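User: I'm preparing a small set of examples for a lab meeting where we compare how different chains pack in three dimensions. I only have the primary sequence for this one, and I'd like the structure in C-alpha coordinate form so I can line it up with the others. Please keep the answer compact; I'll paste it straight into my notes.
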Amino acid sequence: VEQMAAQVFDPDVLPQIRFFPTLPPDHHRAVIQELRRVEKQMGQNTRLRQELRNLLYNVALQQRLEEALDSQTVHFIYERYTLFHAAGIAVARRLGVPHLLEVNAPLAEEQKRMRGLELEELAVASENWIWQNTDRLLVVSRQLAALAEQRGVAPEKITVVPNGINPDRFNEAATGQLVREHWRLVDTRVIGFVGSLKNWHGTRTLVEAFAGLTGEFPEARLLIVGDGPEKTVLQDLVRSLQLKEKVIFTGKIPHPQIPEFIAAMDIAVAPYVPQENFYFSPIKIFEYMAAGKAVVAGRIGQVEEILSHKKTGWLYPPGDVAALAEALRQLLKNPKFVQSLGQRARRQVLENYTWEGNARRVLAEVQKLQEAQSMHREG
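Assistant: Understood. Below is the C-alpha coordinate output for the 379-residue chain.
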Protein backbone atom coordinates (compact mmCIF):
# COMPACT_ATOMS: atom_id res chain seq x y z
CA VAL A 1 0.00 0.00 0.00
CA GLU A 2 2.85 2.38 0.82
CA GLN A 3 4.46 1.65 -2.53
CA MET A 4 1.19 2.27 -4.41
CA ALA A 5 0.73 5.54 -2.54
CA ALA A 6 4.29 6.58 -3.39
CA GLN A 7 3.60 6.09 -7.09
CA VAL A 8 0.18 7.76 -7.14
CA PHE A 9 0.73 10.79 -4.88
CA ASP A 10 3.20 13.64 -5.10
CA PRO A 11 6.13 12.54 -2.88
CA ASP A 12 5.95 15.87 -1.02
CA VAL A 13 2.33 15.28 -0.08
CA LEU A 14 1.45 12.56 2.40
CA PRO A 15 -1.81 10.83 1.47
CA GLN A 16 -4.43 10.59 4.13
CA ILE A 17 -4.78 6.92 5.03
CA ARG A 18 -7.69 6.11 7.31
CA PHE A 19 -7.67 3.09 9.57
CA PHE A 20 -11.01 1.86 10.82
CA PRO A 21 -11.44 0.46 14.35
CA THR A 22 -11.18 -3.31 14.64
CA LEU A 23 -13.93 -3.38 17.27
CA PRO A 24 -17.58 -3.45 16.18
CA PRO A 25 -19.94 -0.75 17.50
CA ASP A 26 -21.51 -0.94 20.94
CA HIS A 27 -24.73 -2.66 19.91
CA HIS A 28 -22.71 -5.42 18.23
CA ARG A 29 -20.37 -5.75 21.21
CA ALA A 30 -23.42 -6.33 23.40
CA VAL A 31 -24.32 -9.35 21.26
CA ILE A 32 -20.76 -10.65 21.62
CA GLN A 33 -20.87 -10.21 25.39
CA GLU A 34 -24.08 -12.25 25.51
CA LEU A 35 -22.49 -14.95 23.38
CA ARG A 36 -19.55 -15.04 25.79
CA ARG A 37 -21.94 -15.47 28.74
CA VAL A 38 -23.84 -18.30 27.03
CA GLU A 39 -20.61 -19.97 25.99
CA LYS A 40 -19.33 -19.91 29.57
CA GLN A 41 -22.58 -21.32 30.97
CA MET A 42 -22.62 -24.12 28.42
CA GLY A 43 -18.98 -24.98 29.05
CA GLN A 44 -18.17 -24.71 25.36
CA ASN A 45 -14.94 -23.41 23.95
CA THR A 46 -15.40 -22.84 20.24
CA ARG A 47 -14.57 -20.15 17.70
CA LEU A 48 -18.24 -19.33 17.09
CA ARG A 49 -18.06 -16.02 18.95
CA GLN A 50 -15.08 -14.86 16.88
CA GLU A 51 -16.75 -15.89 13.63
CA LEU A 52 -19.95 -14.04 14.54
CA ARG A 53 -17.83 -11.05 15.53
CA ASN A 54 -16.30 -11.04 12.03
CA LEU A 55 -19.75 -11.15 10.46
CA LEU A 56 -20.95 -8.26 12.61
CA TYR A 57 -17.83 -6.25 11.91
CA ASN A 58 -18.39 -6.66 8.18
CA VAL A 59 -21.74 -4.89 8.56
CA ALA A 60 -20.27 -2.13 10.73
CA LEU A 61 -17.31 -1.68 8.38
CA GLN A 62 -19.57 -1.21 5.37
CA GLN A 63 -21.53 1.47 7.23
CA ARG A 64 -18.39 3.31 8.30
CA LEU A 65 -16.77 3.10 4.89
CA GLU A 66 -19.86 4.52 3.21
CA GLU A 67 -20.05 7.36 5.70
CA ALA A 68 -16.34 8.16 5.33
CA LEU A 69 -16.04 7.81 1.57
CA ASP A 70 -19.30 9.26 0.24
CA SER A 71 -17.82 12.76 0.32
CA GLN A 72 -14.39 11.68 -0.97
CA THR A 73 -13.01 11.15 -4.46
CA VAL A 74 -12.22 7.43 -4.64
CA HIS A 75 -10.54 5.88 -7.68
CA PHE A 76 -10.43 2.24 -6.56
CA ILE A 77 -10.64 0.05 -3.46
CA TYR A 78 -7.83 -2.34 -2.58
CA GLU A 79 -8.61 -4.89 0.10
CA ARG A 80 -6.79 -7.77 1.74
CA TYR A 81 -9.16 -10.71 2.02
CA THR A 82 -10.60 -11.48 5.44
CA LEU A 83 -13.06 -14.28 6.16
CA PHE A 84 -16.74 -13.20 5.85
CA HIS A 85 -15.88 -9.67 4.67
CA ALA A 86 -17.80 -8.48 1.62
CA ALA A 87 -17.98 -4.82 2.67
CA GLY A 88 -15.28 -3.69 0.25
CA ILE A 89 -17.16 -5.05 -2.76
CA ALA A 90 -20.43 -3.47 -1.64
CA VAL A 91 -18.83 -0.05 -1.14
CA ALA A 92 -16.98 -0.23 -4.47
CA ARG A 93 -20.26 -1.01 -6.26
CA ARG A 94 -21.96 1.92 -4.55
CA LEU A 95 -19.14 4.28 -5.56
CA GLY A 96 -18.82 2.86 -9.07
CA VAL A 97 -15.09 2.13 -8.76
CA PRO A 98 -13.01 -1.03 -9.26
CA HIS A 99 -12.48 -3.40 -6.36
CA LEU A 100 -9.24 -5.38 -6.11
CA LEU A 101 -8.87 -8.18 -3.58
CA GLU A 102 -5.51 -9.48 -2.37
CA VAL A 103 -5.73 -13.16 -1.38
CA ASN A 104 -2.89 -14.90 0.43
CA ALA A 105 -4.72 -18.11 1.33
CA PRO A 106 -8.10 -19.88 1.15
CA LEU A 107 -8.99 -18.79 4.66
CA ALA A 108 -12.03 -21.02 5.14
CA GLU A 109 -9.96 -24.13 4.46
CA GLU A 110 -6.96 -22.82 6.38
CA GLN A 111 -8.94 -21.85 9.47
CA LYS A 112 -10.76 -25.18 9.53
CA ARG A 113 -7.45 -27.03 9.38
CA MET A 114 -5.51 -24.90 11.86
CA ARG A 115 -7.97 -23.46 14.35
CA GLY A 116 -11.37 -24.99 13.70
CA LEU A 117 -14.36 -23.47 11.91
CA GLU A 118 -17.91 -23.49 13.26
CA LEU A 119 -19.72 -21.75 10.40
CA GLU A 120 -18.03 -23.83 7.72
CA GLU A 121 -20.75 -23.86 5.07
CA LEU A 122 -21.31 -20.12 5.39
CA ALA A 123 -17.57 -19.44 5.34
CA VAL A 124 -17.00 -21.44 2.15
CA ALA A 125 -20.06 -19.98 0.43
CA SER A 126 -19.13 -16.41 1.34
CA GLU A 127 -15.50 -16.97 0.32
CA ASN A 128 -16.57 -18.26 -3.10
CA TRP A 129 -18.95 -15.34 -3.60
CA ILE A 130 -16.36 -12.74 -2.58
CA TRP A 131 -13.68 -14.23 -4.82
CA GLN A 132 -16.09 -14.44 -7.76
CA ASN A 133 -17.46 -10.91 -7.37
CA THR A 134 -14.35 -8.82 -6.93
CA ASP A 135 -13.22 -7.06 -10.11
CA ARG A 136 -9.68 -8.41 -9.82
CA LEU A 137 -8.46 -11.26 -7.65
CA LEU A 138 -4.78 -10.72 -6.80
CA VAL A 139 -3.35 -14.04 -5.64
CA VAL A 140 0.19 -14.65 -4.40
CA SER A 141 0.89 -17.85 -6.34
CA ARG A 142 -0.01 -19.78 -9.47
CA GLN A 143 -1.21 -22.62 -7.22
CA LEU A 144 -3.68 -20.28 -5.52
CA ALA A 145 -4.84 -19.04 -8.92
CA ALA A 146 -5.64 -22.63 -9.92
CA LEU A 147 -7.65 -23.07 -6.71
CA ALA A 148 -9.57 -19.85 -7.42
CA GLU A 149 -10.49 -21.15 -10.89
CA GLN A 150 -11.78 -24.35 -9.27
CA ARG A 151 -13.95 -22.12 -7.06
CA GLY A 152 -15.57 -20.56 -10.11
CA VAL A 153 -13.48 -17.42 -10.60
CA ALA A 154 -13.07 -16.48 -14.26
CA PRO A 155 -9.37 -16.86 -15.25
CA GLU A 156 -9.29 -13.38 -16.81
CA LYS A 157 -10.15 -11.87 -13.40
CA ILE A 158 -7.12 -13.46 -11.70
CA THR A 159 -3.66 -11.89 -11.52
CA VAL A 160 -0.70 -13.56 -9.81
CA VAL A 161 1.34 -11.12 -7.72
CA PRO A 162 3.91 -12.99 -5.58
CA ASN A 163 5.15 -11.52 -2.34
CA GLY A 164 8.29 -9.41 -2.35
CA ILE A 165 10.76 -7.39 -0.33
CA ASN A 166 11.79 -3.83 0.36
CA PRO A 167 15.41 -3.57 -0.90
CA ASP A 168 16.14 -0.73 1.54
CA ARG A 169 15.88 -3.18 4.44
CA PHE A 170 18.51 -5.50 2.96
CA ASN A 171 21.60 -3.43 2.25
CA GLU A 172 25.25 -3.22 3.24
CA ALA A 173 24.32 -1.67 6.59
CA ALA A 174 23.14 -5.11 7.74
CA THR A 175 26.40 -6.96 8.43
CA GLY A 176 25.28 -9.49 11.03
CA GLN A 177 28.42 -8.80 13.06
CA LEU A 178 26.61 -7.89 16.28
CA VAL A 179 24.43 -10.99 15.96
CA ARG A 180 27.50 -13.18 15.51
CA GLU A 181 29.17 -11.61 18.52
CA HIS A 182 26.10 -11.82 20.76
CA TRP A 183 25.36 -15.47 19.91
CA ARG A 184 29.02 -16.57 19.89
CA LEU A 185 29.08 -17.24 16.17
CA VAL A 186 32.33 -15.45 15.32
CA ASP A 187 34.64 -17.70 13.23
CA THR A 188 31.86 -20.24 12.58
CA ARG A 189 29.93 -21.29 9.47
CA VAL A 190 26.29 -20.44 10.11
CA ILE A 191 23.37 -22.37 8.63
CA GLY A 192 20.17 -20.49 9.43
CA PHE A 193 16.39 -20.64 9.43
CA VAL A 194 13.93 -17.78 9.98
CA GLY A 195 10.23 -18.32 10.61
CA SER A 196 7.56 -19.68 12.89
CA LEU A 197 8.39 -23.07 14.36
CA LYS A 198 5.50 -25.13 13.03
CA ASN A 199 5.67 -28.68 11.78
CA TRP A 200 5.01 -27.90 8.10
CA HIS A 201 8.10 -25.70 7.95
CA GLY A 202 10.27 -28.80 8.21
CA THR A 203 12.67 -27.59 10.90
CA ARG A 204 12.91 -31.10 12.36
CA THR A 205 14.41 -32.34 9.10
CA LEU A 206 16.84 -29.42 9.20
CA VAL A 207 18.06 -30.37 12.68
CA GLU A 208 18.41 -34.02 11.64
CA ALA A 209 20.33 -33.08 8.48
CA PHE A 210 22.61 -30.76 10.45
CA ALA A 211 23.38 -33.56 12.92
CA GLY A 212 25.03 -35.53 10.12
CA LEU A 213 27.42 -32.69 9.28
CA THR A 214 28.95 -31.73 12.60
CA GLY A 215 31.70 -34.36 12.51
CA GLU A 216 32.90 -33.24 9.08
CA PHE A 217 32.35 -29.54 9.78
CA PRO A 218 32.99 -28.92 13.50
CA GLU A 219 32.89 -25.14 12.93
CA ALA A 220 29.30 -25.29 11.62
CA ARG A 221 26.44 -23.89 13.70
CA LEU A 222 22.68 -23.95 13.23
CA LEU A 223 20.86 -20.67 14.00
CA ILE A 224 17.08 -21.03 14.38
CA VAL A 225 15.36 -17.64 14.47
CA GLY A 226 11.74 -17.67 15.57
CA ASP A 227 9.30 -19.25 17.97
CA GLY A 228 6.28 -21.51 17.82
CA PRO A 229 4.65 -24.76 18.96
CA GLU A 230 7.53 -26.92 17.62
CA LYS A 231 10.20 -25.21 19.70
CA THR A 232 10.07 -27.64 22.63
CA VAL A 233 10.07 -30.63 20.27
CA LEU A 234 13.09 -29.23 18.45
CA GLN A 235 14.96 -28.50 21.67
CA ASP A 236 14.34 -32.08 22.85
CA LEU A 237 15.61 -33.36 19.50
CA VAL A 238 18.74 -31.20 19.77
CA ARG A 239 19.46 -32.59 23.25
CA SER A 240 18.93 -36.19 22.11
CA LEU A 241 21.35 -35.65 19.21
CA GLN A 242 23.87 -34.00 21.57
CA LEU A 243 23.87 -30.78 19.55
CA LYS A 244 23.13 -28.35 22.37
CA GLU A 245 26.43 -26.48 21.90
CA LYS A 246 25.97 -26.18 18.14
CA VAL A 247 22.30 -25.20 17.74
CA ILE A 248 21.06 -21.76 18.80
CA PHE A 249 17.41 -20.91 19.38
CA THR A 250 16.93 -17.13 19.45
CA GLY A 251 13.22 -17.13 20.20
CA LYS A 252 10.95 -14.53 18.64
CA ILE A 253 12.80 -11.61 17.07
CA PRO A 254 11.11 -8.31 16.05
CA HIS A 255 10.80 -8.18 12.27
CA PRO A 256 12.86 -4.99 11.84
CA GLN A 257 15.83 -6.92 13.28
CA ILE A 258 15.50 -9.89 10.92
CA PRO A 259 17.88 -8.51 8.22
CA GLU A 260 20.73 -8.50 10.77
CA PHE A 261 20.08 -12.14 11.66
CA ILE A 262 19.95 -13.22 8.01
CA ALA A 263 23.14 -11.24 7.39
CA ALA A 264 24.83 -13.36 10.08
CA MET A 265 24.14 -16.54 8.09
CA ASP A 266 26.26 -18.19 5.42
CA ILE A 267 23.50 -20.50 4.20
CA ALA A 268 19.77 -19.88 4.68
CA VAL A 269 17.31 -22.77 4.64
CA ALA A 270 13.58 -23.08 3.93
CA PRO A 271 13.09 -26.83 4.37
CA TYR A 272 9.32 -27.47 4.37
CA VAL A 273 7.77 -30.94 4.35
CA PRO A 274 5.82 -32.67 1.55
CA GLN A 275 2.28 -31.30 1.43
CA GLU A 276 -0.58 -30.97 -1.01
CA ASN A 277 -1.90 -27.58 -2.11
CA PHE A 278 1.22 -25.60 -1.25
CA TYR A 279 -0.24 -22.25 -2.30
CA PHE A 280 2.09 -20.02 -0.28
CA SER A 281 4.45 -17.30 -1.47
CA PRO A 282 7.24 -17.61 1.14
CA ILE A 283 8.51 -14.18 2.15
CA LYS A 284 11.44 -15.78 3.99
CA ILE A 285 12.89 -16.97 0.68
CA PHE A 286 12.64 -13.50 -0.86
CA GLU A 287 14.34 -12.07 2.22
CA TYR A 288 17.11 -14.67 2.12
CA MET A 289 17.70 -13.78 -1.54
CA ALA A 290 17.63 -10.03 -0.88
CA ALA A 291 20.31 -10.51 1.76
CA GLY A 292 22.51 -12.22 -0.84
CA LYS A 293 22.49 -15.61 0.88
CA ALA A 294 22.82 -19.07 -0.62
CA VAL A 295 19.31 -20.49 -0.26
CA VAL A 296 18.57 -24.19 0.26
CA ALA A 297 14.87 -24.95 -0.06
CA GLY A 298 12.41 -27.77 -0.51
CA ARG A 299 11.31 -28.13 -4.15
CA ILE A 300 7.63 -27.37 -3.64
CA GLY A 301 4.96 -25.05 -5.00
CA GLN A 302 6.11 -21.56 -5.90
CA VAL A 303 9.56 -22.20 -4.42
CA GLU A 304 10.80 -23.97 -7.55
CA GLU A 305 9.43 -21.12 -9.68
CA ILE A 306 11.43 -18.56 -7.69
CA LEU A 307 14.70 -20.47 -7.37
CA SER A 308 16.67 -22.03 -10.20
CA HIS A 309 18.61 -25.08 -8.98
CA LYS A 310 22.34 -24.38 -8.60
CA LYS A 311 21.88 -20.95 -10.20
CA THR A 312 19.96 -18.89 -7.65
CA GLY A 313 19.45 -21.58 -5.00
CA TRP A 314 19.73 -25.26 -4.18
CA LEU A 315 16.54 -27.30 -4.38
CA TYR A 316 15.92 -30.76 -2.93
CA PRO A 317 12.90 -33.04 -2.30
CA PRO A 318 11.11 -31.64 0.79
CA GLY A 319 11.30 -33.97 3.76
CA ASP A 320 14.37 -35.81 2.45
CA VAL A 321 16.89 -35.51 5.28
CA ALA A 322 19.73 -37.15 3.34
CA ALA A 323 19.23 -34.83 0.34
CA LEU A 324 19.16 -31.77 2.60
CA ALA A 325 22.32 -32.90 4.38
CA GLU A 326 24.06 -33.42 1.03
CA ALA A 327 23.02 -29.96 -0.18
CA LEU A 328 24.45 -28.38 2.96
CA ARG A 329 27.61 -30.50 2.69
CA GLN A 330 28.27 -29.38 -0.87
CA LEU A 331 27.79 -25.73 0.04
CA LEU A 332 29.96 -25.92 3.16
CA LYS A 333 32.71 -27.42 1.00
CA ASN A 334 32.46 -24.63 -1.59
CA PRO A 335 32.48 -21.13 -0.02
CA LYS A 336 33.05 -19.42 -3.38
CA PHE A 337 30.00 -21.16 -4.85
CA VAL A 338 27.99 -20.09 -1.78
CA GLN A 339 28.97 -16.48 -2.45
CA SER A 340 28.13 -16.58 -6.18
CA LEU A 341 24.83 -18.34 -5.50
CA GLY A 342 23.87 -15.56 -3.07
CA GLN A 343 24.88 -12.80 -5.48
CA ARG A 344 22.75 -14.25 -8.29
CA ALA A 345 19.83 -14.71 -5.90
CA ARG A 346 20.01 -11.07 -4.85
CA ARG A 347 20.01 -9.86 -8.46
CA GLN A 348 17.02 -12.07 -9.20
CA VAL A 349 14.91 -10.79 -6.30
CA LEU A 350 15.77 -7.12 -6.93
CA GLU A 351 14.73 -7.46 -10.57
CA ASN A 352 11.54 -9.43 -10.06
CA TYR A 353 10.23 -9.50 -6.48
CA THR A 354 9.98 -6.09 -4.80
CA TRP A 355 6.98 -4.35 -3.25
CA GLU A 356 7.61 -1.42 -5.58
CA GLY A 357 7.33 -3.72 -8.59
CA ASN A 358 4.19 -5.28 -7.14
CA ALA A 359 2.67 -1.81 -6.73
CA ARG A 360 3.31 -1.07 -10.40
CA ARG A 361 1.63 -4.33 -11.42
CA VAL A 362 -1.40 -3.63 -9.24
CA LEU A 363 -1.76 -0.07 -10.56
CA ALA A 364 -1.56 -1.43 -14.11
CA GLU A 365 -4.51 -3.70 -13.28
CA VAL A 366 -6.37 -0.72 -11.82
CA GLN A 367 -5.86 1.19 -15.06
CA LYS A 368 -7.21 -1.75 -17.11
CA LEU A 369 -10.30 -1.94 -14.91
CA GLN A 370 -10.89 1.81 -15.07
CA GLU A 371 -10.59 1.80 -18.86
CA ALA A 372 -13.03 -1.12 -19.08
CA GLN A 373 -15.52 0.71 -16.83
CA SER A 374 -15.18 3.88 -18.93
CA MET A 375 -15.82 1.96 -22.17
CA HIS A 376 -18.83 0.28 -20.59
CA ARG A 377 -20.32 3.63 -19.54
CA GLU A 378 -19.71 5.13 -22.96
CA GLY A 379 -21.17 2.08 -24.65
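A couple of notes for your slides: The domain at 20-164+355-378 is CATH 3.40.50.2000 (Rossmann fold). The beta strands are 77-80, 99-103, 136-139, 158-160, 189-194, 220-225, 247-251, 267-270, 294-298, 314-316.

User: Perfect, thanks.
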